[in-house]
C-alpha cells in the first residue's frame, strides 16, 4: 500500500521595505508532498498579508449667498446675480453640471424678504478647488460664504484599494513560494488554489502638523482622511522536481 509523506518548512522572512503604500505583514509557508492514486502530487501552501493605504479622492464644498430686500424682485435679483457669477466661475474651470447642485429659498423676515441660495460642488482636483474658492472669496467678498471642504472616498477609490490589497497579498505569496521551492530543489508550477481568508479596513486622519512637541498653533487646514485595507490570502502552487529534468 502506498504511504503518504509530508514535509513542513516554516520560513520567517526578514523585514523589508515595500514600495508605495503597500506593506507586507507576515508569511507562513508549508511545503507538502502527498501520494494520490496514479501520481505523486507535490504542492506548496502559502499564506500572505498585505496592506494598501488610500487618501480621500473627493471633496465637497458648500458655497452660499443671501440678501434681504424690501421686495421679492429685489431680493431675487440681488442673489441671482451672485449665484450666476458662482456658476460661471465653475463652468470656466471645467466643473461639470453633474458635480454641482443648487438650492434656493425665499422667505419673509419681519418686513423684509430674504433670498438664500447655496451651491454644493464636488471636486476631484483639490488644487482646482483651492483656486475656485479663492476667486469667489476675492470677487464676491462678504456677500459669499465658502464652507470648509469635506473630504471623502469615492466608491471607485475604495474598490480599487481593496483590489490592490488582495493582488499585493497574492504577489507576496507567490514570491515567497518561489523562494521556498528553490530551497527545496523544486520549481514552482501553476497555482492550484487562491483563497482570500480575511479582509480588514480602518480609517484614520492625516496629521496636519499640529499637536507635536514644540509645534505652533493648531493648523486651520482640514484633515485629509485616509483608509487602509488589509488582505490575507492562502495560495497553493504545484511543484516540479527540477532534479528529474536534469537527468
From TrEMBL:
The keyword Chloroplast does not apply. GO terms for cellular component: cytoplasm; nucleus. Transmembrane segments: none annotated. The keyword Repeat does not apply. Keywords: Cytoplasm, Kinase, Nucleus, Receptor, Transferase. GO terms for molecular function: kinase activity. Residues 202-247 are annotated as: Disordered. One of its GO terms (biological process) is immune response. InterPro entries: IRAK1BP1 (IPR030312), SIMPL/DUF541 (IPR007497). It comes from the Eukaryota. It is found in: Cytoplasm; Nucleus. Residues 228-240 have a biased composition (Polar residues). It holds the Pfam family SIMPL. PANTHER family: INTERLEUKIN-1 RECEPTOR-ASSOCIATED KINASE 1-BINDING PROTEIN 1. Belongs to the IRAK1BP1 family. This is Interleukin-1 receptor-associated kinase 1-binding protein 1. It comes from Pundamilia nyererei. The lineage of its organism: Eukaryota, Metazoa, Chordata, Craniata, Vertebrata. The gene is irak1bp1.
Amino acid at each position: 500500500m502506498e504511504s503518504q509523506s509530508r514535509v513542513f518548512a516554516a520560513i520567517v522572512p526578514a523585514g523589508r521595505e515595500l514600495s508605495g503604500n503597500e506593506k507586507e505583514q507576515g508569511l507562513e509557508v508549508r511545503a507538502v508532498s502527498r501520494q494520490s492514486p496514479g501520481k505523486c502530487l507535490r504542492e506548496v501552501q502559502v499564506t500572505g498579508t498585505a496592506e494598501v493605504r488610500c487618501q480621500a479622492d473627493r471633496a465637497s464644498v458648500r458655497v452660499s449667498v443671501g440678501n434681504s430686500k424690501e421686495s421679492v424682485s429685489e431680493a431675487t435679483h440681488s442673489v441671482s446675480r451672485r449665484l450666476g457669477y458662482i456658476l460661471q466661475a465653475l463652468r470656466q474651470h471645467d466643473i461639470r453640471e453633474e458635480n454641482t447642485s443648487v438650492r434656493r429659498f425665499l422667505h419673509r423676515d419681519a418686513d423684509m424678504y430674504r433670498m438664500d441660495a447655496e451651491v454644493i460642488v464636488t471636486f476631484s482636483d483639490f488644487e482646482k478647488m483651492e483656486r475656485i474658492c479663492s476667486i469667489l472669496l476675492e470677487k464676491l467678498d462678504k456677500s459669499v460664504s465658502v464652507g470648509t471642504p469635506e473630504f471623502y472616498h469615492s466608491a471607485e477609490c475604495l474598490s480599487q484599494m481593496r483590489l490592490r490589497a488582495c493582488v499585493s497579498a497574492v504577489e507576496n505569496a507567490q514570491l515567497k513560494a518561489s523562494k521556498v521551492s528553490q530551497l527545496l530543489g523544486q520549481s514552482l508550477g501553476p497555482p492550484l488554489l487562491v483563497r482570500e481568508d480575511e479582509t480588514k479596513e480602518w480609517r484614520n486622519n492625516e496629521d496636519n502638523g499640529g499637536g507635536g512637541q514644540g509645534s505652533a498653533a493648531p493648523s486651520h487646514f482640514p484633515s485629509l482622511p485616509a483608509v487602509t485595507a488589509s488582505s490575507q490570502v492562502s495560495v497553493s502552487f504545484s511543484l516540479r522536481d527540477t532534479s528529474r529534468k536534469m537527468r
